[in-house]
Amino acid sequence: MKRAILERLLKDRAAKHAVVLVTELQSGAQALVYPQEVFGDLPLDGDALVRIRETLAADESGTVELDGKRLFLQVQNPPLRLVVIGAVHIAQTLAPMAALAGYSVTIIDPRRAFATDARFPDVKLIGEWPDEAMATMKLDRRTAVVTLTHDPKLDDPALQTALKADVFYIGALGSRKTHAARLGRLKAAGFSEADGARIHGPVGLDIGALSPAEIAVAILAQITAVLRGAGAYGRREKAA
After folding, report:
1. Phi, psi of 125 (to 5 degrees)
2. With b meaning 16 or more CB within 10 Å and e meaning fewer, what string describes 148-187?
3. Which of 76, 111, 131 lies at the terminal end of a domain, its last residue?
4. pLDDT (tens digit, 9 = 90+) per residue, 164-213?
5. Full domain range(s) for residue 175
6. What is the percent of the chain with per-residue pLDDT over 90, rounded to a whole number?
7. Are strands 124-126 and 103-108 parallel, antiparallel or unpaired?
8. Are 184 and 136 members of one domain?
């Protein structure tokens, strides 16, 4: 590996940048492929770059044949993050499940009686108002946001902040009636129908979940389906 490639890759890892290290196995030539740029001495054309960037979105490292070249793709993505609004019973199960699935979990709730270390061991807790806390978190396409409080004073500001960011998933707990009222408030706040359509509400896959643990399973399953591109939460959709 050339020094320039190595130094830049180390900086990318420290900064948690999304990048694919591409190595041509025959020649050893390498390139760093980013969502918007390429760095290195390995020539790659438009179609190959599209395929490589698809592996970045899918977190799929491995060996591929592109344009007659045998390439090894090593994907480096920032950690997946789950931001949960509300230190409630569902969150007590959802947080450890999501951590096992590879997410860095943060729970935000200014209600100190709920957000305690005893109820959420080994989970990052923020006891601030959601919009204030989320404003400092650099929400990105590796982030999922779920609101669980049923309290518009907490959920609505969090949803508005999430809608202004490029997060890959937004979910909100509540019945269809509650969600309709929520969408009405967002519309009154200046958000469009397309914005509202980004919110999965009621949150989670419809699996008949009743208990907090079952609802947590449904939520994580839906987040996974959206992350991995499962069309209508069924068979995974792959680009032709």
Report:
1. -115, 135
2. bbeeeebbbbbbbbbbebebbbbbbbbeeebbeebbeebe
3. 76
4. 999 999 999 999 999 999 999 999 999 999 999 999 999 999 999 999 99
5. 80-232
6. 75
7. parallel
8. yes
- Residues linked to residue 30 through DSSP beta bridges, in sequence order: 23
> Residues 44, 140: one domain?
no
Where would I find the beta strands (DSSP E) of 88-225?
Answer: 103-108, 124-126, 143-147, 169-172, 199-200
Q: Are residues 68 and 97 in the same domain?
A: no
User: Among residues 156, 175, 154, 158, which one has the least CA distance to residue 167?
Assistant: 158
Do 228 and 140 fall into the same domain? yes
For residues 90 and 165, state if they share a domain. yes
Are the CB atoms for 146 and 203 separated by under 8 Å? yes
pTM over 0.85: no
Q: Please count the structural domains in the chain.
A: 2
